[in-house]
Design brief:
By secondary structure, this protein is mainly α. 42% of the residues lie in helices and 9% in strands. The strands form 4 sheets. It has a 3-stranded antiparallel beta sheet. Helix 7 (223-237) runs parallel beside helix 12 (370-383), helix 8 (240-251) packs antiparallel against helix 12 and helix 12 runs antiparallel to helix 15.
């Protein structure tokens, strides 16, 4: 299976054709000019889609948030410090955990989906079983294409705002394979990208069929992952009725079954082992884990990059309205001299060969989880001023996060927890949304979700540098929209984001 970027393969074809013309090697033109797969049946199309999942992790964004402080005693690369200081990154598409890496790897993944979608209608499907399989392949291709563009626009474009989305610059929405050596693109507006994501996503949900993911269902866009995707999409778009609709379809009558129970005997027993706990946490057997992806990254390494310090941990996990112990705080790894890192990632390493000591560090990213869906619904319910229902979802999560004799929370207790009591100018809606934002921060620390809330709610961030000076990322700071890679500007003709 050729996993090279489509653009690289086109470059190879072009250069070989030039050589053939110069050397008059006409016979060469009768053969395939590279080792790409001939997509002439559904099995090969489905196999190619395994490369339609980007290996780039979005978790590097946590280095830019208030989840991270200056960490001593670890290796700090240039990209780590640039992220920590909100500087535009050096344009190296091979440097993992950078915007350029994310950009190129995600468009590479999208290119594989486009290759499949371009030939799908021509592939034979003369039985009902094959027609069903074709629908399933189309579903997966559309969902991964939609997800890739959605992630790109939320990193390299402004957060969706209905009043400005039709003029805010997003990212190119690529729907066809590249067929020229160097192609120029235009940046679709945020509105255009969201419209196209929605169309692909809804078609993917309509066609999804889990029966074709035997033994590997959590590593593909299965039905539950697609529904979870819809809740995040509509939350970011501000369509709260749709968030509730798709969350209800996923969570059903027993939403707690989609929340891993960190207070259980199973997790408590595993907490004494730094190997067993992350394996259990990220296991595809956990019902809460909806979509898993292999991610080439250093975010899981405790010897690289800034991360949560003890002070950050105290801020994130200290105090709760339930009166119990937050089981997310421990177990944790020691990171450097002053860091503390949750034991949720299993740090894995792929050697370049059997006898090699070099290779790629990676982890299994939990890209969609039941806990996120529950919190998405709680936020949407609060936005609709359905406070009692939102608090019910908060309680469902709390019952499996806080050990001890925890209380059943009420809006009165929640208001008192934030010290706003009966102040009439602070609504119950605002209080519940604030709690959900903070709960999401605890639930996803180091996993790359905090950045989106910092953008969505214009939360300022302050970082303290090694010399004790401070720098600030303001609520509406332009740097919250990551700069697109220089090569995409120079070669593809895209306009840079303002600075």
């Amino acid at each position: 299976m050729n996993s090279k970027p489509i653009s690289n393969r086109i470059m190879k074809v072009s250069l070989l054709l030039v050589a053939a013309l110069v050397g008059s090697c006409n016979d060469f033109l009768n053969e395939a000019p590279d080792n790409r797969v001939a997509l002439n049946d559904l099995d090969k199309a489905a196999q190619l889609l395994t490369n339609a999942y980007s290996v780039a992790s979005p978790a590097f964004t946590d280095w830019m948030t208030d989840n991270t402080a200056y960490t001593r005693g670890v290796t700090i690369r240039q990209i780590h410090q640039r992220a920590f200081e909100w500087q535009d990154f050096v344009d190296d598409p091979n440097e993992s955990d950078s915007p350029s890496f994310f950009w190129f790897q995600t468009y590479n993944a999208i290119a594989h989906a486009n290759e499949v979608l371009a030939v799908l209608s021509s592939l034979p499907a003369d039985t009902e079983a094959l027609k069903q399989k074709k629908r399933a392949v189309e579903s997966e291709a559309r969902l991964v294409r939609a997800y890739g563009h959605f992630m790109l626009v939320n990193l390299f474009g402004k957060h969706y705002d209905a009043s400005t989305a039709d003029s805010d610059q997003g990212v190119p929405y690529v729907e066809t394979p590249e067929t020229v050596f160097i192609k120029t693109y235009k940046r679709n507006t945020v509105q255009e990208v969201y419209d196209k994501v929605e169309a692909d996503m809804l078609k993917g949900i309509e066609l999804v069929d889990d029966s074709f993911f035997a033994n590997s269902g959590k590593y593909h866009f299965n039905k539950n992952a697609a529904l979870a995707f819809a809740t995040r999409f509509y939350l970011f778009k501000g369509n709260y009725d749709k968030v509730i609709e798709y969350a209800n379809l996923l969570l059903g009558a027993d939403p707690g079954s989609f929340v891993r129970d960190l207070t259980s005997e199973e997790f408590q027993a595993a907490s004494s082992s730094v190997q067993a706990y992350p394996q259990l946490y990220s296991s595809p057997q956990q019902r809460s884990n909806l979509l898993l992806m292999r991610k080439i990254s250093l975010v899981q390494r405790v010897d690289f990059a800034h991360g949560p310090t003890g002070d950050v941990y105290d801020e994130v996990f200290s105090g709760n309205p339930f009166g119990g112990t937050d089981e997310r705080e421990n177990p944790s790894f020691v990171k450097g001299q002053n860091g503390q890192f949750p034991a949720w990632y299993e740090s894995l390493f792929e050697r370049s060969s059997l006898n090699s000591n070099v290779g790629l560090p990676y982890h299994i990213g939990l890209m969609f989880r039941g806990e996120e869906v529950l919190l998405n619904r709680a936020e949407a319910l609060a936005q609709k001023n359905r406070i009692t229902e939102a608090i019910t979802d908060i309680q469902t999560l709390a019952n499996k996060r806080y050990s001890g004799n925890i209380s059943t929370i009420t809006i009165t207790e929640l208001r008192n927890f934030y010290g706003v009591g009966t102040i009439p100018t602070i609504s119950n809606r605002a209080v519940v949304i604030e709690y959900v934002i903070n709960e999401r921060r605890r639930e996803f620390i180091t996993q790359g979700m905090r950045w989106y809330d910092i953008k969505r709610f214009e939360i300022p961030v302050e970082h303290v540098l090694v010399d004790g000076s401070t720098i600030e990322l303001e609520g509406d700071d332009l740097r919250k929209v990551l700069q697109i890679p220089t090569s995409a500007i120079d070669v593809a003709g895209l306009k840079p984001n303002p600075r």
